[in-house]
Amino acid sequence: MSRISRRRFLRVAGVGMAASTLPSFASSETARRPFSADAAGSCLAISSANGIASVAVARALVLEKAMRPVSAAVRGVASVEADENDMSVGYGGLPNELGVVQLDSACMDGPTHNAGSVASIEDIMHPAQVAELVMDHTDHINLVGPGARQFALDYGFKAENLLTERARGIWLKWRAQRSGDDRLWPLLDTVPADPALAAEPRPWGTIHCSVLAPNADLGCCTTTSGLAFKIPGRIGDSPLIGCGLYCDNEVGSAGATGRGEAAILSGGSWLVVERMRAGDTPEEACLYALRRVAQQAERGARWQPALWKDGQPNFGLTFYALRKDGLYGSANMRGGGRFAIADEKGARLENCAIAFGQ
Question: Which CATH number belongs to the domain containing residue 267 in this structure?
Answer without folding.
Answer: 3.60.20.30
